[in-house]
Amino acid sequence: xxxxxxxxxxxxxxxxxxAIMRKLKNEGFINLIHKSSEELDxxxxxxxxxxxxxxxxxxxxxxxxxxxxxxxxNTYRAQFLYENLMIQSNVIHQSYVHNVKKLLFLASSCIYxxxxxxxxxxxxxxxxxxxxxxxxxxxxxxxxxxxxxxxNKQYGSNFISVxxxxxxxxxxxxDLNNAHVLPALLQKFHHAKINNLKNVxxxxxxxxxxEFLHVNDLADACYFLMQNYxxxxxxxxxxxxxxxxxxxxxxxxxxxxxxxxxYWNNEKPDGTPRKLLDVSLIHNLGWKHRxxxxxxxxxxxxxxxxx
Length: 307
Ligand code: GFB
Fold this sequence. Notes:
Helix content: 40-55%
Mean pLDDT: 97
Number of helices: 10
CATH class of the domain at 7-171 and 212-239 and 276-291: Alpha Beta
CATH superfamily of the domain at 7-171 and 212-239 and 276-291: NAD(P)-binding Rossmann-like Domain
Bound molecules: guanosine-5'-diphosphate-beta-L-fucopyranose
CATH topology of the domain at 7-171 and 212-239 and 276-291: Rossmann fold
C-alpha cells in the first residue's frame, strides 16, 4: 500500500474498524474511504455493487460485521448468520469483480472447535464441533475465510484472513446485553462503585479462560500483515497468554476499586472452556503484541469512565 492508495475500511465506526482507521492515519495514509451503515447497507448486494463501481478501492479492510458477546450471539442467532454471510459475500465478491489488489478479512478465534487442543493452531480449523452459543457467527466467519481462500485459488486474488482473539479497547460495546465480558465487567464494577452497591453479578462459573488483545495491537497486526503477508492460512493474532474469567473479574474489581463482593450467576452460560491461540506463526513473521492486559485495561477504564 502506498500513502495515496485508495483504501476502503468497511466497519470504520466499530471497535476494530476505527482502530484500523487510526493506525492508517498515523502511518500517513491520505486516501481512506468509509461509509456508515446508514450510508451503505453492506447486506444489500445492489448497494455494494454501486459502491464498488463508483469508488473502485485498491485495498479493503473488511472489519464490518454483526458482533457481540456470548448472550448477543445466542439471542440473535439468525441475524448473526445471515447478516455476516451477506456482508462478507458482497464485499469479497465485489472486491474480486473490481480487481482490489488486496483484502484483509477479520475472522475470530471463536470459530475454532469448542474442544480444540490448547493452544489452538491455525490447522485446527474445522477439526471439531463448534461452541453452540456462537455457532451461527462461527459458521458465517468460517465461510468468509473459505471465500477468501477459494477466490485466491480460483481467481488468483490476494485476500487474506486473520483470527484475532477476544478484543477490547476504544469504541467497544458496553451495553450489558450485547457486550463482551471485559467491557461488561468494567461497566458493572464501575456502576457498582459509584452507586455504592453491595455486589456485582458476574456470569457463569468463572472457570473458562480467555485471551485478550488490545484493539490497537490488532490494528497494528492487520497493517503489518496487509504489508507483509500473502497466503491462505487465516493467521492467529493474540498475546499467547490467557486468564480465567474469575481472575479477570478480580483484576477489574481491583482496577476499578470496587470494595463489595461478587455474585456468580450460574444460570448464564460459560461458553467455550478455553480458546488460547498459538501465535507462533505471526511471531515468526515478525509481529508481536505490545500492550499488556493490566496496562490495557487501566488505559481503557480511565479513557471510558474517568475522562
Ligand atoms: O466475551 P464473551 O461474552 O464471549 O465472554 P466469548 C463470555 C465469558 O465471560 C463466558 C463470562 O464464560 C461468560 O460466562 N462472563 C462473565 C460474561 N460475566 C459476563 C458478562 O457480564 N458479560 C459477558 N458477555 N460475559 C465470544 C463469541 O465468545 O467471543 C463471539 O460469542 C466473539 O462470537 C467473541 O467471537 C470474540 O469469549 O465466550
